[in-house]
What does this fold into?
Amino acid sequence: MKARRLTPNEYPAFGSLAEQCDSVFCSDLFLSSFDQNTVVRFGIFDDKDVMMGGFVLMITRLRGIQALINPTYAPHCGLFTTGDHEGHGFRKNQFHKDVLTAVAEALASESVRIISASLPVYYTDAQPFLWRKFRIQTKFTYRLDLTQSEEEILNGYDPKLRSVIRKYTSGEIKVDSNLDAQRLITVIGDLNKTKGIRKRDTITESIAENYLTQQRGKSIAAIIRQDNDWASVAFCIRGNNECYYLLGTVNKAVKLNGASTLCLHHCISTARQSGVKVFDFEGSSIPGVEAFFRSFGGELIPYFNISRCPLILRPFLKN
It folds into this structure.
């Protein structure tokens, strides 16, 4: 088994395989949101040189040095494979070892000085990277099992959330799924301005257009409106089995208690009704955000980030 960068004529096969394996962040839809000169697709090939998986990273520059990192908004590199990844015992262990050894060897051969890539939660064997002198960091995300009943999910919430959610179920506060791309773009643009960011966020704009205009069925969104203004928005993208919370925010000028909770609950409920099995909150290391995600009762799951970086630049490596 081996992994390597793909050539453009191999991209269609990569996209088809990613779709077959339900890889949200290696899908053509997600990757088309980026400048294609920055997207690096890696294929994983079996002993007969047949593509059986892959992952994706993005070229950028950190402090002027070229780097390969997770794509913007992606919590991991989207690693996917066909084959025996859901088996048990030796067969599963050996398959994962072979896959991750191939990935580690491919990344170790890269000439860029900085690499930072996270593995999906179901790939837990980081030894091949450790053996090749990569730095291993543990990250965390909350993942909520949506195969539970609605009642079971609500019972897992922090009791403090339930009074807020009663306003939603009673119809006192209306949550609308029809968040349009332009509204999301405007909201994020205004949010960036408050942070002193003036440059257009073309990636967010492209993702919004792709998921809220071109293929709305691949997203789940929520907006609460009040007094001809917006109070809160939430935006997620989904595959057949997993839904990822990409972003959400509240309008501080519109004081509506619990608006962010209601938007996120609406997304969770909609994902469950759509047949999605897992809701991933894309965990945060910010204590206040972590506490908010924790209140929805998901399971705290560790996953690995592997990196190679000059020691002096490690404080700037946030991916």
User: Anything to note?
Assistant: The first strand starts at residue 2 and ends at 5. The longest helix spans residues 89-108. The CA atoms of residues 64 and 313 lie 11 Å apart. The chain has a mean pLDDT of 90.
